[in-house]
Amino acid sequence: MARLTKLLVANRGEIALRIIRSARLFGLKTVAVYSAADAKSAHVGAADEAIAIGPAEAAKSYLDIAAIIAAAKQSGADAIHPGYGFLSERPEFARAAADAQIVFVGPRPEVMAALGDKVAARRIAVAAGVPVVPGIETAEISAARAFAALAGYPILVKAAAGGGGRGMRIVAEAAQLESALEAAAREATAAFGDGRIFIEKYLAHPRHIEIQVLGDEHGALVALGERDCSIQRRYQKIIEESPAPGLSAEMRAKMIDAALKLARAAHYTNAGTTEFLVEGDNFYFLEVNARLQVEHPVTEMRFGCDLVCEQLRIASGGKVSEPAAPRGAAIECRINAEDPEHNFRPATGTVLHLSVPGGPGVRFDSHMTRGAEVTPWYDGLLGKLICYGPTREEARGRLVNALGEFALLGVTNNAAYLRDIVASEQFRDARLSTHFIDQFFPEWKITNDEIDAAIVAAAITAGDVQAENAAPKANTERRSPWDSLNNFELWGSRR
Ligand code: MV4
Question: What is the pLDDT of residue 453?
Answer without folding.
Answer: 59
